[in-house]
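Something for you to look into today, if you have time. I want to see for myself how the chain folds. Leave the record below and I will have a look.
***
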Amino acid sequence: MDELIALSNATLDRLRVERPNYDRGALTPGIVHIGVGNFHRAHQAWYLHRLMQDGKAHDWAIIGAGVRPYDTAMREKLMAQDCLTTLIELDPRKTSAEVVGSMIDYLPIEDGNGALIRQMADPSIRIVSMTVTESGYYIDPVTKGFDASHEDMLHDAAHVDTPRTAFGAIIAALRARRAAGHLPFTCQSCDNLQGNGDILRQTVVSLARMSDPALAGWIDENGAFPNSMVDCIAPATGPKELALARDFGIKDNAVVTHEAFRQWVIEDAFCAGRPDWEQTGATFTDDVHAYETMKIRILNAGHQVIANVGETLGIETIAGCMADPNIRAFFGAVQRSEIAPTVAPVPGKTPAEYVDLIEQRFANPQIVDTTRRVAFDGSARHTGFVLPILRDQLAAGRSIEGLALVEALWARMCAGTREDGSEIAANDPIWDALKDAALAAKTRPVAWLEQTNLYGDLLENPTFSRAFIRWLEMIWSQGCQAALVEYTKSARA
């Protein structure tokens, strides 16, 4: 094998893959992105990079940021290679690579977030975007309102100059901009939340109101929080992904693999300008809701349909789950009979066509997307993705048998052991509470539904509660596969 080339500005000309054709030294910042994970670098950073390749948006470069101690490891990796990332596209027909250069710096992670606040206060920054996971917005899981009682929010309201969260830092920067006579930046969520811009506005404005109502009003009136729908599967990086970079002759400690599919649908509501992302494939529309409903319900809820049972059965990847005939049949039956009926078509795509697309994407064996990663944070993902569908089905008088089985499979997974007896390690911010409820539900299934912080009043709905109890009892007595077969057979009848 030829000698590996360590990724850096100095070695770009030696690479044999597509790489930045623009002068990275001449780029100037316009965006701060908080939460620099694989998805951001395969998605938003790529769209901007493609614009830069066309000679545009050179004043919109990204500065990375983080607010948690674990972000330091990513910063060190990226700074060591001049914030460059190798993206490897895993198409079943071919594998290709390109180096993306739209990020030019990564701020140090500090207690009090001083460097982040100062950077966002700079008027050159016109967008602050983020990927902080679905559970990171301080939302009450039942009311969907702002959780003002959370210790992080109480801390940031009391320590406005040294906040611990991204939202507290955003407010501190906006306070500085207002005092200096500058306009606010656009706050842009890139997380899988329906109405993610509205939720981001709720969190920022509500937190600001706890300490400075006048500032909260200024942000609400003058700021912008566009809704968006984002989509691209970008698995976690491990030894296999690092080896793929080496196959291209590149030493990249932060390589990202991704599927051959991207979608970004954005509400055109920016208060300080934006890059022309539509020129590289993004869709701007006034009806983001229809796109995000289709994606969140069919893809994101679909992930929960298969990940929990896959984890319980010891299947390591999502593609592996789809290779199991009973799981795939279950996925298709739930999607077509209980999820798709709650989704409206969008231009160019019906719900049935989107289900077919997602089946193909999930089954791609080149994408090593771990079942554990997809099953992570079920307390946010079930309440955010699955239960709204279940409630809509109940309200319409349609079947919820498959969705009740999805919830029973989640309860079985949270008991903490697989069917082969091996341990399932903690995989949720409230894992201990989930595990206690799941173990109690082994002999008294209703104990799982008594988690009103998750299920609200659904316990009181006899259609759902009876179905859930029946499925969980079958899972514990006959196993997951028997329950999948029983549901699929009844759905076809």
